[in-house]
Amino acid sequence: MENELQKLKAEAEEALHAISSKANLEDFRVKFLGRKGLFSSTMKQLGKVSKEDRRRLGQLANSIKKSVEELFRDRKEMLESGDGTVAEAVDLSLPGRALPFAALHPISQVMEEMCAVFEGMGFAVAEGPDVETDHYNFEAVNIPRHHPARDMHDTFYVSESILLRTHTSPMQARIMENQDPPLRYISPGKVYRCDSDITHTPMFHQVEGFLVDRKVSFADLKGVLTSFIHRIFKDDLPIRFRPSFFPFTEPSAELDIACVICGGSGCRVCKRTGWIEILGAGLIDPEVMKMVGYDPDEFSGFAFGLGVERIAMLKYGIDDIRLYYENDLRFLKQF
Ligand code: FA5
Predict the structure, then answer these.
(1) pLDDT tens digits along 171-182
(2) Position 101 in a domain
């Protein structure tokens, strides 16, 4: 009888598999699972087997019937969910679903390109923490408490002495206090300021760069930055150095490049000036040198801090910086 049960199971499975339309389901049910069906008549024979085998074979018959009933239910559900035929329920000829390709965010792409240009000039890369102490963000770069320059940085404070860094300049102090000159570093990363309009976002990226050695001059700084800009943009793009002020550099300058959105004629992005500021720079202030234990009579250096989003705006002709962070795939997929 055991053989008979296994044979019936195989027969039922085969028959179920062959059913390709709803119309044939009922025939199957009556033939195999109905009151006068094959399972019922096989189970009736249990009365004829010996008492010792009856219990075991009864359990086997029940479990086989249950599994066939389950298969039947699945088949029924499948056929009822389409137009009643297997071909409609599962179309094996359909192509598979392709996984979408991931890609680097345009800001990451520009950042990588910028770093590669500086690495080509011999700068090493060092990254620092986004959550910074008040000491490194301000004090160590010559911006003591109550200094008016703190107002230029709309700072997000975590506590009285901990903040989200407002610029990458703290990395100057962190590296210089641990190493002796000559030094040539860039430090890329995220910075945060409570600021938002078409050229400002609350989180943006900077690439800090600095070089310390003997007899470093402003001409060296101009040379490095000019060749950087000409590598990133085209060779004849007009640029200008404009005198500025930073407590950690003296003298200080900002570098503007001709607005590529309007070609220099004036638009809302360049605030009708024809120029867009992309970086701050200068010769490292002797006070900063002294704070890290360098002798300013022996060593000099320059430093700069570039705004990555601004460069990306100008490179791709984007007229609102906030587009980079709206996560609209239609925008991001263009890069
Ligand atoms: C600084 O942050 C100085 N630490 C730069 C520096 C480094 C000067 C070393 C001297 C020596 P500033 O606040 O100007 O400077 O910012 C530098 C650049 O970051 C700006 O030129 C601009 O391109 C970009 N930037 C500033 N604020 C924002 C903002 N909210 N959104 C996007 N980019 C910004």
Answers:
(1) 999 999 999 999
(2) no
